[in-house]
Every structure is written in C-alpha cells, then in structure tokens.
Design brief:
Elements lengths: L6 E6 L2 H9 L8 E4 L8 E4 L1 H4 L9 H7 L4 E3 L3 H18 L3 E5 L2 E5 L1 H5 L4 H16 L3 E6 L2 H10 L5 E3 L5 H5 L12 H9 L5 H5 L3 H8 L3 H8 L15 E12 L2 H22 L3 E10 L4 E12 L2 H15 L6 E9 L7 H4 L8 E3 L1
Parallel strand pairs: 2-4, 7-8
Antiparallel strand pairs: 1-6, 1-7, 2-3, 5-6, 9-12, 9-13, 10-11, 10-12
The protein binds 2'-deoxycytidine-5'-triphosphate and magnesium ion.
2'-deoxycytidine-5'-triphosphate (DCP) binds next to strand 1, helix 1 and strand 3.
Length: about 375
C-alpha cells in the first residue's frame, strides 16, 4: 500500500491543571480544579486526575465540584501561561514534522508518514515524542497512532493519562468495532441517541449498516462517516500554510451575559482576526461566531458577505449581528469566538470551516 499514512494524535493530560501543578509544586499529587469561583456560578475548565476520582470533570459547576471533592483546591485559570506552554509543546511537535495540525491549545495531529518512511517505527517515534515533551516542558502527553486521523484521535484517549496506543495497519476496524459510536469524530450526543434508536451502539454496528441506511441517516456526510467507522478516513492533516479560516476565541473564567462586555470582547477578537488577515494578505467572505453557553453547548453561526473583506469593522458588525440573535433572556456565554473564511476564490472554504477550540488566534 504505497499511500499508507501514519498519523499521531497528541493530547496533553489534564492540561490547565497539569500546568498549575508544574508551576506550584505544592499542588502536585493533590486534587486541583481549575475554573471559575463556586460562589459566582463558575464552572470547572479541567480537573487534575486526583480530582477526577471524585467525579469532578470539565464543564461541571464549580459549586458541585467543591461539594463532591471538598479537599479539592480551586485554582483560577491563567490563560496566558497555558498559551505559552502550548507554544512550547507545538514547537516540539514541529521539530518532528512540518505537518502539524493544532486542534486546540493542548491537542494536535501530526503526519509522520515521511519519518516512518525513513525506517523509524511509529511506536519509537511516539515514545520519543512523549519523552521530549516531558523532558522539555514537564507535561505529559497521551498519544494515539494510526493510519488515519479518526483512529489516532480515538487511540490517544483510550489509555489516558500518559497513554500510548498504536493501532497497527490493518487492525483499524477491529480496534474500533467494540467502542461506543459516540467516540467517533462527528457523532455528537444527539446523533448517538438517534443511532441507538436504530440499534447501532458500537462503531462495529455502524460499520456494518447498509449504504441505503447511511444515505438516509447522514445524507452528504454518509461516505465520510462510513470511512471513519471503518477506520479508513482520508482526511489530510491540515497545516497552517494554506489556511481555510482564521479565527480568534477566548474563554471566560465566569460566564458573561452583559451586552456591553460581550461587544467589547467581540471587538477585540474581530481586531485580532482582521490584523491577521492583513498580515497574511487575504480577505474573507464568511464571518463565523462561535459561542459556548453556560451548559457547554457550543454553537456556530455564520453569514456570507457580498464581497471579500479584511476590515475590522465589517467583521465586528457582522459578528455582532450574529451574536445578538443568540443573546436571549437568561443566556450567558462561556466562550466567544470570531472567524473568517471563504478566502479569495477558495469556493469550498465555508463548508470546510472548522473552528478549533483555541484560546487565542488560530489558523486552520
Ligand atoms: N477545557 C475547557 N473546557 C472544557 C474542556 C477543556 O476549558 N469543556 C480546557 C481545559 C483543559 C484544556 O481545555 O485543560 C484541554 O482540554 P482537554 O479536553 O484535552 O482536557 P484536559 O487536557 O484537561 O484533560 P485530558 O487529560 O482528558 O485531555
Ligand atoms: Mg487534554
């Protein structure tokens, strides 16, 4: 198989909490819960594995977390520091290969096909990478390796923390078969529920459905989903050289509902995106806002303008329109993002827009 690829998915363990434990040695070995204050309806961004034993997890109200884990130490997030650590880790990834696709601050795909081609084993490359990240940053990264992105991503999560799972070429389907469908990239909780209704519980069940069923359930996405269920998706690792979108986003320590504050944040994000577009000398047509609600539902809303632009004002006003439509009574936001896509003649830009979960500026 000449076109076989080797792909790593790397994801840091308990990222924010791990950075706090690294910088504050007195926190090591203790249950640490990073997030907003329990008094002001803050939520948990992440918890150290010591706290997870008590059932504490991301997106849980901090007040609940404190109740479940009274000895837990609540730490306010320090996003600048996390960004800095993220850059260090991404630099290490880039040392191994140019083909790095960051998905968020603590997560990336790496295409290591060329490295394997020079005689190295995927397992050896993964072990080296884990060691380098740990020696140079003090953080632990879990790694999954496979012949496609969806397999690598699922593999990296399987033995967390400090996990390393290599799925050998040819084993993809057997590896995926027993896992719940919800683990598959693109199958959210709602879709999973619908699939359960059809008796599809595992990825193996999904892989054996007839094509008519796929077409009915997934329409245009049918082929892509089936390929993923078989562990054969051919999605490339998208590097930053030809970005399809440029976006900026920020997470708040406490949920925000005040329109003026939201508008202020939107202005900053729009300015960020606009200056990045100018630097890259590109103009976009499609403005996207990404919103995360207090309950962690994530929404994206987008609109396509009549002409290409990189103007801060145009981006800002379009984003504001999209946001105000979502600002219903009692709704508070945990994350706000602004993105621009549809560059130049790139007609398929908008459809392929993926806004990564990034703390600051990101290029996809
Ligand atoms: N994050 C957040 N809100 C969420 C999920 C994550 O603010 N709902 C932040 C905090 C995490 C970081 O993003 O540290 C990375 O997210 P992960 O999902 O990778 O979670 P962790 O790295 O914390 O833990 P894991 O070991 O499960 O990867
Ligand atoms: Mg992580």
């Amino acid at each position: 198989m000449p076109d076989m690829r080797h792909i790593i998915h790397a994801d840091l363990d308990a990222f924010y909490a791990a950075v706090e434990q690294l910088d504050n040695p007195e926190l090591r070995g203790l249950p640490v819960m990073v997030g907003g204050s329990p008094q002001s309806r803050g939520v948990v961004a992440t918890a150290s594995y010591e706290a997870r034993v008590f059932g504490v997890h991301s997106a849980m109200p901090m007040a609940t977390a404190v109740r479940q884990c009274p000895r837990g130490i609540v730490v306010r997030p320090r996003f600048d520091r996390y960004r800095e650590m993220s850059r260090m880790v991404m630099d290490i990834f880039h040392h191994l290969t140019d083909l790095v696709e960051p998905l968020s601050l603590d997560e990336a795909y790496l295409d290591i096909t060329d490295q394997v081609g020079t005689g190295k084993l995927p397992l050896g490359i993964a072990i080296d990478l884990k060691r380098r990240v740990n020696e140079e940053t003090g953080l632990n990264v879990s790694i999954g390796v496979g012949t496609c992105k969806s397999v690598a991503k699922i593999a990296s999560d399987l033995e967390k923390p400090d996990g390393l799972v290599v799925v050998a070429p040819g084993d993809e389907r057997d590896f995926l078969a027993p896992l719940p469908v919800g683990k598959l990239w693109g199958i959210g909780p709602k879709t999973a529920e619908v699939l359960h209704g059809d008796g599809v519980e595992t990825i193996g069940d999904l892989a054996t459905q007839p094509d008519e069923w796929y077409a009915r359930r997934f329409g245009k996405r049918a082929q892509g989903i089936k390929a993923k269920a078989l562990g054969q998706d051919d999605d490339p690792v998208k590097t930053e050289r030809n970005p399809k979108s440029i976006s900026a986003e920020t997470t708040f320590a406490e949920d925000l509902s005040n329109p003026e504050e939201l508008r202020g944040v939107l202005g900053k994000l729009s300015g960020n995106v606009s200056s990045h577009l100018s630097r890259k000398d590109v103009k976009g047509k499609t403005v996207t806002v990404k919103l995360r609600l207090a309950d962690f539902t994530t929404l994206t809303r987008q609109t396509t303008l009549a002409s290409h632009t990189n103007s801060e004002e145009a981006i800002m006003e379009t984003a504001w329109k999209l946001l105000t439509r979502e600002m219903t009574e009692g709704r508070a936001f945990r994350l706000l993002g602004v993105g621009m896509s549809g560059f130049g003649d790139d007609l398929d830009g908008p459809q392929q827009l993926v806004l990564p979960l990034f703390e600051s500026l990101s290029i996809d």
